[in-house]
Amino acid sequence: MTDRQHDGGPEALLPSERPVRFLTDTGAAVRGRPRYPLPSPETLRRAYRAMVVGRRFDAQATALTKQGRLAVYPSSHGQEACQVGAVLALQDGDWFFPTYRESMALVTRGIEPTEVLALLRGDAHCGYDPHRHHVAPQCTPLATQTVHAAGLAYAEQRKGSGRIALACVGDGATSEGDFHEALNFAAVFKAPVVFLVQNNQYAISVPLDRQTAAPSLAHKGIGYGIRSERIDGNDPVAVLAVLSAAAEHARSGHGPFLVEAHTYRLESHTNADDATRYRTDAEAEEWRRRDPIARLEAYLRRRGHLSDEDVAEAATAAEEFAARLRTAMNAAPELTPLGMFDHVYDVPTPQLDEQRASLRSELEAEEALT
Amino acid sequence: MTTPSTTMAQALNSALRDALTEDERVVVFGEDVGRLGGVFRITDGLTAEFGEDRCFDTPLAEAGIVGFAVGMAMGGFRPVVELQFDAFAYPAFEQIASHVAKMRNRTRGRVALPMVIRIPYAGGIGGVEHHCDSSEAYYAHTPGLKVVTPATADDAYSLLREAIEDPDPVIFLEPKKLYWSKSQVALPVRTEPFGRAAIRRQGADATLVAYGPTVPVALEAAEAAVEEGWDLEVVDLRTIVPFDDETVAASVRRTGRCVIVSEAAGFAGVGAEIAARVQERCFHSLHAPVLRVTGYDIPYPPPMLEQHHLPNVDRILDSLDRLQRDDRPDPRFLPLGGAA
Description:
The complex is a heterodimer of chains A (370) and B (340). With 370 residues, chain A is α/β, with parallel strands linked by helices. Helix content of chain A is 44%, strand content 9%. Chain A is built from twelve helices and seven strands. In chain A, helix 7 (177-188) links the parallel strand 2 (165-170) and strand 3 (193-199). The radius of gyration of chain A is 22 Å and the shape is globular. Chain B folds into two domains: 5-184, Rossmann fold (3-Layer(aba) Sandwich); 198-323, Rossmann fold. By secondary structure, chain B is an alpha/beta fold. A seven-stranded mixed beta sheet of chain B has the order 3-2-4-5-7-6-12, with helices on both faces. In chain B, strands 9-11-10-13-14 form a five-stranded mixed beta sheet, with helices on both faces. The chains are: A alpha/beta (370), B alpha/beta (340). At the A-B interface, helix 5, helix 6 and helix 7 of A face helix 3, helix 4 and helix 5 of B.
């Protein structure tokens, strides 16, 4: 048996000793030379605007849920840097594999908000066309989509398309077997895929120390021969810098890359959850002080890359986005009960045709009564 | 020229070889399918002939294999994966039930998964624990999957080719004990498409409905039953999903009697579904209750006991006694103390 060869030895796979950060909690640049290239001011300005719009979208979706317009909404308030950074680090043709908490990322990707929210409103399991946006369906069974991302990335590599995949999971999902199988398959086949773990500290109510005894979630990479890094997930500069480097690593044929981002879910798991049962206000307050939008705004203003006008424009864009969403979600979705039988198979079985006809009679009888 | 003798294993191997030749999107992968050619040698020689890119070994992880195939299918390939044994497929069940089966429907037709999951299944080969499960009901009960199980070498070839060409995911269940059964088949061959059952033996007195490993047992029983004065029809389902109601019901309407033969535990099994469908469609033609000859409702027994578990000729012949040809009810189900 020989040790696997990695550039710089196995230690080079390990994450940095402390989470990579470019910004202090108040948005000042940290001292010292960063290990990763600094994103361009233009990219950071885009990220700022997308986070402002994304946060407003998230708040609006939460409000719509309280009004009964959505069946459920898992908020990503507090995780804006990861939601936006993960999308901006990718190119248009790259594939994105979201969980159910990535609504903000999906609107950042340019998918119509009503299509993003169809799953959570309950009118369709997936409201958008995955092939059009190169975004897999929002995935609720935890970590199951990470294996798809590995397979798809391998397919892209085989086709020589130059495209990569990025798969999102949370801290809890790193305990699922599929996460480990995905890391292993991706590494063995050198698939160009980036795994982004948004460690928001809780899997619904269960804290991180009940998920793992590992030094960090990023340390899980070395066991599979995967280069790994951990970052301050509320530092948008660090998120963009490291995810861009990870994407480049994958795209240039070096195989998968695992990133653990330390962040915090400021809201409950969903509207149906009550976070006060398992965590303190003081803890949430601590994280509010590391607000990614405020940090990036302070940083960009200090460098002269963001003006009062820019800030006002972003705020206006966010309000308009929310207003459009309200209007769109006030319209009742068009429901076609007979459509339930569509696309079970490419060509329906005779039995499904019978069942469809039976429902059609039911519907016609109901209609005759009204 | 005589038609060569072909085993089911060889027919499956030829189907994979021909599919790999004809469609460059086809990839074959799984545990030991590369250099070894599979533990049952179904993929024998494919890596040597087509290269590591087309037929390759994977890490030993079934959910990973199936999930990786989902991603490759999304990316334009046509994966054909092997899960080594029936009971070793269970780690992949979440991938199969939550993603493979649902992807087309949940994306409203936008993402299709043309992929085949090959699973050597069922008993009769003296396999130790966890190597002999009849797991077809799990898959048949999951909408979105097609479930196929050949009983002959020509069907093995044809159904596997069709599975690989199918735009939907197919669970392809290979009866292990029939891998080495020989028949005269000239390959390539195309038999009836999915959704058509085959009448393997015509008869007038009762219909035996079988699939996969029980088809030869049913045929043997039908021959033996001639001596007892029974002329039995044998229907081979070929595909459990889609299910051929038409052929099965037409046969039972002709014969008026029906026995379903399957290896799986009877309770809540595919046999129960067939019995329900037959009585719904053939009630007025039936002269006796629809019967089932199945495995017992027990975990698959140790190999030295399996002959007591599996449906055999005698058990099928015994079932004929309960088909009320003498117009007497089945004594097993008489009310307590009731007189017949």
